[in-house]
Amino acid sequence: MCAKDPKDFPKLKNDAFLRACHGQETNHVPVWCMRQAGRYLPEFREFRAGKDFFETCRSPAACCELTLQPLRRFPFDAAIIFSDILVIPQAMGMDVQMVAGKGPTFPEPLKEPEDLLLLQPKVDVNKELGYVFKAITLTRHKLDGKVPLIGFTGAPWTLMAYMIEGGGSTTHSKAKRWLYRHPEASHKLLKMLTDVIVEYLLGQVAAGAQALQVFESHAGCLGPVEFQEFSLPYLRDIARKVKDQLKESGQDVPMIVFAKDGHYGLEDLSQSHYEVVGLDWTIDPRSARERTGGKVSLQGNMDPCALYAPKERISEIVKKMLEGFGTRGYIANLGHGLYPDMDPENVGAFVEAVHTHSRHLNLK
Ligand code: 1CP
User: Fold this and answer.
1) Residues above pLDDT 70, as percent of the chain
2) What is the pLDDT of residue 7?
3) Per the residue annotation, which of 73, 84, 303, 339 is the catalytic one?
4) Ligand 1 atom nearest to CA at 98
5) What residue's CA is closest to ligand 1, atom 38?
6) Residue ranges of E strands in the chain
């Protein structure tokens, strides 16, 4: 256990990200990048070399170091704890390995509804995922109040897809087969995941997370009808349950929902108890604002591949994006994670462009 009482956390010095989550004014638009701790950083590759991915996830000191690495290079306005969404299937009893060159792999994925009996019916998150909580508490101290720390989880449908596919997939046909052939078992699994996720997010807040992001990375392979039935109700349930619990203890922790390629559900997502809706790059900023009707803050959405452009072009793209979203109730980010072959210098140019242009726009 970390000996320090979470109440002793250092005072927050830069609250731009939290203010933007709540739609409040900020001097500059806050910015962070999904996968900001990652292989595009030479120090990350060096630190991870020869270590098993999930062993690294289970080491609070390693997670803390990897979370802080990008903050030493760039003036990001938020940190995100280094971990992975697949720690939840592991906590439910599934074996998940990170295979070099292939990505996460489940040697024994779920095949038929009977396989649900193999999952832990009731997960003790403190016992199974306490290592993430320790990493959060340690990182919150080591951040020294520089910026807020974001905790995260995979959403139920995205996790279900991995548990059935056994890894990444382009069609998700095995997991979608369940939705059409075994709808009841699908709901049973989604409900089991929702219960663990709620406890997991509450544990992250108790450990020191100051905001929470829910990744529905595989929203895009669902259509609007399947999204309404198999994703949205669970996303809503998670936010409502986490917020109800936090309210009881007088805590206010903003929540972000990122449903990649799911902008057919944008109106619904903006009325789902999340303060912030994350966007991928396939939607125009002005249209996203219109469709969400000013009800939520927005996060995103520069095409990650724009970071391959020369710095001057990155600056122009950022300026346009800021003009489209406006500087209030907005958190700049990419529309998905950074890729390993990206140039850290261009990431720096992105961050600088967001800060500089948004300060100028605020003075107008
Ligand atoms: O060895 C390595 O470093 C492998 C690359 C890597 C990294 C850096 C993986 C494997 N996971 C992570 C860390 C990670 N994963 C973070 C860290 C914090 C940060 O953003 O800096 C986060 C938030 C995640 C979340 C995650 N894992 C998501 C949701 C975000 C997204 O990309 O949509 C998903 C889908 C995963 C699964 C996963 N983990 C790793 C890979 C390569 C994948 C995708 C596999 C696939 O579907 O093909």
Assistant:
1) 98
2) 63
3) 84
4) 10
5) 104
6) 79-80, 97-99, 103-105, 149-154, 211-216, 255-259, 276-278, 297-302, 330-334
